[in-house]
Design goal:
Number of strands: 7
Largest sheet: 5 strands, parallel
């Protein structure tokens, strides 16, 4: 049976080339697949999916022109075991007699028709509904061997009679056989009812879009080689549209552009001839004017066009499959294909340039009214309304930055990176200074702050709220030492309202200044309020920094439990706020790593230190107090881990920041203290190559107890001899000769908590000599 089916499949490839079994007045070229292009990309995955879809009596392959619908079905016909009856549909098939005659002829090529069917077609007076349709449908239902009927271009069937005739044939398809309908749009058949009544396999633009590998093959066969970034970028722009990729290849070969747009000559000509030239002026005008929108819904389109009827227009475009991408399952939101929108925007600029800012202004107003300020910001800028852009940006920049999307805000700031605009909009300038400082861009942060100061000085109205924010930034940059930092921050706190979004930052900076000046109680109080205010306002970045600062203060007063709790909360804020790649998170992560080390969680601590250290190059003298603090905390952690090289690197970077900002109060002393501690550690103890192994670090907390080596071995599930060997190695690496000395050094280095040692010292007496016995 299988070999017979394969033979019939081979016959399907040659359909229409052998002698016909019956003599019909048909167009033979309509009964075979169009000749394939030699450079066609094999669609193996989709072909295999179609071959395995025997349970689906109906297959719909619907997508705009150039997606390779016919190519896919031709490749399927060449590889499927079942024979294919192929009909290329055109306008003449809106006469059901013509359509059914070609279907019958195609079926006769794979298995001779019954005499009653041929007789019905041979008699010109045979009525379609009383003779041809009943006999042909009975012929279909009686066939034993599975087959596939392809109606390529079925969307050309606009007559109800032809569509109804095909519907009757579908109802009579026997199990294992299929009817495949292809087209640029859904055929005019009751598709919704078919979805309910029959298993229906639908393949659309998403499935037909070429994969990265398939796009690479297509471009290579066209003579184009792109690197990975260029290939991915081109695939994104074309959205896997095969014709778009092929036309892009022509543009690349002609002028070398690796990012062709929809208004490039080849793509524009194709879209124009295949689609735009066939549209009525009303439909074309709708497409052109709504192209200012990245995404659209009917109410938005109505607002932008100052009219009604957009819902019907969108539905018509969607039904025509006119490069419209549905964004939800409710048919509420859509967008245009990237290249199609490019072309529409070019036409709008050429034909109605004065209307472009008007359309954007209406879109901005609609988005603001519907609480989408980010979209409103885009359209306000596109409309050239700089004042509105500044107002919207100032209202959302910090919130977006605190949500983990700093790169988005930096892109917005680029819109204002001109001194004239910054002077005119001091609120934006000071906001930009804050964000640029947090990203480590010190010189730009300083320039934006000076622009804010100039803007406030030159304006009398509308700047009262900006002045205390400028004071916060002046304090944060700490260009004149901690005393001036404290004065500026205190002045800002006194003037900012309790619900002002800048108040948490002001409290954080004042707390940091108090800490630098040695007033730890005042520092902790200000930082605690900063944490509370930041949690209420959603200022996650400020909250994480303040928690890290408080953890360090608690550890300094030996309140380990509080330090650990604050460090754990700081880490949670960083992770939940997706701030791990923010330079300012280095301090919170370092504090959390110190906490993990206090509990012997070495692997977890190392992971946190890796993430924190990765951010330090971007934590610069823009915020010098934070940059030095983070490096001191990291250096302390690396000393605990016996990683002298990493600790020295952190100290070297801290010293470099102190060269630029030399007066940082207690931090100067902390750096000096670390330098002395690191210098006092013998090379044998501090060298990275002689550091403790994971097993030795796991042993250390047990050395501080009264347990014998045998009892320790039982707890760690290893032998007494293994514990002895590890202990000797620990003594050697720490430069000591007894268990009590090892514990003392471990306490000094923070490898074990001091609280665990107080009750156990008297029982620690084993020496290296006694271990050897």
């Amino acid at each position: 049976m299988n070999s017979a089916l394969r033979g019939l499949g081979a016959k399907a490839i040659l359909v229409g080339t052998s002698d016909p079994g019956v003599v019909f007045d048909v167009v033979e070229s309509k009964l075979r697949p169009p000749p394939g292009q030699p450079e066609s990309v094999p669609r193996t995955a989709l072909v295999n999916r179609l071959r395995a879809a025997g349970a689906f009596p109906i297959v719909l392959v619907v997508a705009p022109a150039g997606y390779g619908k016919t190519t896919l079905v031709s490749q399927w016909a060449a590889r499927d075991a079942r024979p294919f009856a192929w009909v290329s549909v055109d306008e003449r098939d809106n006469d059901p007699h013509v359509l059914l005659k070609h279907v019958a002829a195609a079926l006769d090529r794979i298995e001779p028709l019954g005499a009653d069917v041929t007789e019905a077609f041979e008699r010109p007076e045979s009525p379609v509904w009383d003779a041809i349709v009943p006999r042909l449908s009975a012929e279909l239902s009686s066939r034993a061997l599975p087959f596939v009927i392809v109606l390529d271009g079925a969307d050309a069937l606009v007559s109800n009679d032809s569509a109804e005739a095909i519907g009757i044939l579908i109802e009579n398809i026997p199990p294992g056989s299929m009817i495949a309908l292809t087209g640029r749009a859904l055929p005019r058949m009751p598709i919704a009812a078919l979805r309910v009544a029959e298993p229906l396999l639908e393949i659309g633009p998403y499935e037909l879009a070429l994969s990265r590998r398939e796009a690479e093959i297509l471009l290579r066969t066209s003579g184009v080689e792109l690197d990975e970034i260029e290939l991915v970028g081109l695939l994104h722009r074309t959205e896997g549209w095969a014709a778009g990729l092929r036309l892009a290849a022509l543009a690349i070969l002609e002028d070398g552009a690796s990012r062709p747009a929809g208004d490039d000559r080849y793509i524009a000509d194709y879209l124009g001839s295949e689609y735009l030239s066939r549209l009525e002026p009303r439909a074309l005008r709708f497409l052109r004017r709504t192209s200012v929108l990245e995404r659209m819904c009917a109410p938005l389109c109505n607002a932008v066009l100052s009219g009604k009827g957009s819902a019907a227009e969108l539905e018509e475009i969607n039904r025509a499959n006119l490069f419209l991408v549905q964004l939800d399952h409710h048919r509420g939101w859509y967008r245009y294909h990237h290249l199609f929108r490019d072309l529409l925007q070019r036409d709008l600029e050429e034909q109605e340039p004065d209307l472009v800012p008007v359309l954007h202004r209406r879109a901005a107003a609609w988005y603001e009214a519907h609480l989408d300020p980010e979209s409103a910001l885009f359209h306000a800028h596109a409309a050239g309304d700089i004042d509105d852009t500044a107002r919207i940006l100032g209202s959302i920049a910090q919130q977006v930055h605190d949500s983990g999307r700093a790169a988005v805000v930096e892109g917005w700031l680029d819109l204002f990176d001109v001194d004239e605009r910054l002077d005119r909009h001091p609120a934006v300038a000071v906001q930009g200074s804050s964000i640029l400082a947090a990203r480590g861009r010190a010189d730009e942060a300083d320039r934006w702050l000076h622009a804010a100061e100039r803007g406030v000085a030159s304006r009398r109205r509308g700047v009262a709220a900006v002045r205390p924010r400028i004071a916060v930034m002046r304090a944060a940059l700490c260009t004149n030492g901690p005393a001036q930092m404290q004065a500026d921050a205190s002045a800002a706190v006194s003037k900012l309202a309790a619900d002002d979004p800048w108040r948490p930052a002001a409290l954080l900076v004042r707390g940091a200044a108090d800490m630098l000046l040695g007033d730890r109680d005042s520092a902790d109080a200000a930082l605690a309020e900063a944490v509370e205010r930041a949690a209420t306002s959603g200022s996650t970045e400020t909250r994480a920094i303040a928690l890290g600062e408080r953890s360090m203060l608690a550890a300094a007063r030996e309140d380990v439990r509080t330090a650990d709790a604050l460090a754990e909360e700081a880490q949670r804020v960083v992770e939940e706020g997706e701030l791990a790649d923010y330079p300012t998170s280095a301090l919170a992560l370092a504090a959390s790593a110190r906490s993990r080390l206090r509990h012997g969680q070495w692997d977890h601590a190392r992971r946190l230190l890796t993430v924190a250290t990765r951010q330090t190059p971007h934590l610069t003298y823009a915020l010098p107090w934070l940059a030095v603090q983070a490096r001191i905390e990291l250096a302390d952690a690396y000393v605990t881990l016996r990683d002298r090289e990493a600790a020295e690197l952190m100290l070297e970077e801290a010293r470099g920041i102190l060269v630029v900002r030399p007066d940082l109060g207690l931090l100067d002393e902390a750096v000096a203290r670390l330098e002395l501690e690191l210098a006092a550690i013998p090379e044998a103890r501090a060298g990275g190559s002689s550091g403790l192994t994971r097993a030795e670090l796991r042993l250390l907390p047990h050395l501080s107890t009264h347990l014998s080596f045998r009892e320790i071995g039982e707890r760690l599930h290893v032998s007494r001899n293994t514990i002895k060997t590890q202990a000797i190695s620990v003594y050697r690496k720490l430069g000591v000769s007894s268990r009590s000395e090892a514990v003392a050094v471990a306490e000094d280095l923070g490898l074990v908590e001091a609280a665990e040692l107080k009750d156990d010292r008297l029982e620690l007496g084993e020496t290296v000599g006694s271990l050897a016995i």
